[in-house]
Amino acid sequence: MHNVVILGSGCAGNTAAIYTARANLKPLVITGHEPGGQLSITSLVENFPGFPDGVDGPVLVQQMREQAQKFGAEYRDGSVLEAGLSQRPFRLLVEDEWIETRTLIVATGASARWIGLENEQKLIGKGVSSCATCDGFFFRDKRIMVVGGGDSAMEEALFLTRFGRDVTLVHRRDEFRASKIMVDRAKAHPKIEIITNTIVDDVYDISKGTVTGVRLKDARTGECRDRDVDGLFVAIGHVPNTKPFVDKLELDPDGYIVSKGGARTSVEGVFHAGDVQDRVYRQAITASGAGCMAAIEVERFLENEGH
Ligand code: NAP
After folding, report:
1. CA-to-CA distance for 118 and 116, rounded, in angstroms?
2. Strands of the chain, DSSP E
3. Three-state DSSP state, 44
């Protein structure tokens, strides 16, 4: 029987692990299908406080893990396939073994949705990014392309005008999901060009190990053309990793956990941390902060229960 099981090993999960381990709760962390979370696919992180020269995303998240392990956190590779939360102790199916825990921190994150191109995947962190706040700075005076037609795409395109020589926004339809005010702002910006009814069909250049251009395909005629770009920001939404919690925890229509204040979820003893609940900030530092909150709530919950 565990005191606390933490699902996810990104910033939120690792920070929750550091805090609960230092509180002597011997947390068990289930790493999830993307160990290290979003940071593990980023390059340099320059906005995490305490690192004036920046720090590599994978290094930062690995160091958080080592810090938690130093205080006694145990890490197990794998994902939760099923969760029984209707009574305590909670029961979790981790790969092929059921485990029991008094409390649970869900820090499973939200995965960026990708276009799904082979070369896009290979060039992540080498010119392909899903986070303008994280990586925009590296594209000073470069040609930037943003994909998507929602608020995130508009926001990223506008943000990236601070860095890029120009920003091209590519959307697969000619109607936008984004709010009118954001679309109007993007349309009015002198550095932004909007291309509609167009799909990014391939990303170059795998042989150079960096983004040099894309193949664009007209969604109506199927006609293709190449275009030179240095950076490709994919902003086509995120998918919260809450599959095992459908009908077990209150989720919003997009699948994000609904917060009941602090780090509380709709089930007593189950807490949320990080992007699995946060669709707004999505930063390493906010996820870490949320992990800390969840850990403190776990400590207090267990103390109240006499453990
Ligand atoms: P979103 O609103 O779901 O928009 C996703 C966009 O990506 C859509 O335009 C969609 O095209 C496109 N898309 C999806 N899959 C694609 C694919 N495989 N290839 C090409 N394009 C694809 O997601 P979001 O922009 O991340 O926003 C999520 C939520 O957060 C929204 O509720 C949004 O309002 C909110 N948000 C608000 C703000 C703000 O208020 N400042 C900022 C960011 C986000 P289709 O339209 O053709 O489906």
Report:
1. 7
2. 2-7, 28-30, 44-45, 55-56, 74-76, 80-84, 90-94, 97-106, 110-112, 128-129, 143-147, 166-170, 192-195, 198-204, 213-218, 224-228, 231-234, 238-240, 270-272
3. strand
One-letter identity of residue 208: K
Global pTM reads 0.78
Residue 134 has a pLDDT of 84
**What residues are paired with 214 via a beta bridge?**
203, 227
What's the CA-to-centroid distance between 169 and ligand 1, angstroms? 13
Strands 192-195, 166-170: pairing kind: parallel
Structure tokens at 225: 């053309």
Atom of ligand 1 nearest to the CA of 236: 7
Condensed to tens digits (0 to 9), the pLDDT of residues 210-221 reads 999 999 999 999
Q: What is the largest CA-CA distance in the chain?
A: 67
Using the atom order of ligand 1, give the atom closest to the CA of residue 151: 25
Give the domains, in start order, of the chain with CATH numbers. Answer: 2-111+238-304 (3.50.50.60), 114-234 (3.50.50.60)
Q: What angle do CA 125, 126, 132 make, to 5 degrees?
A: 55
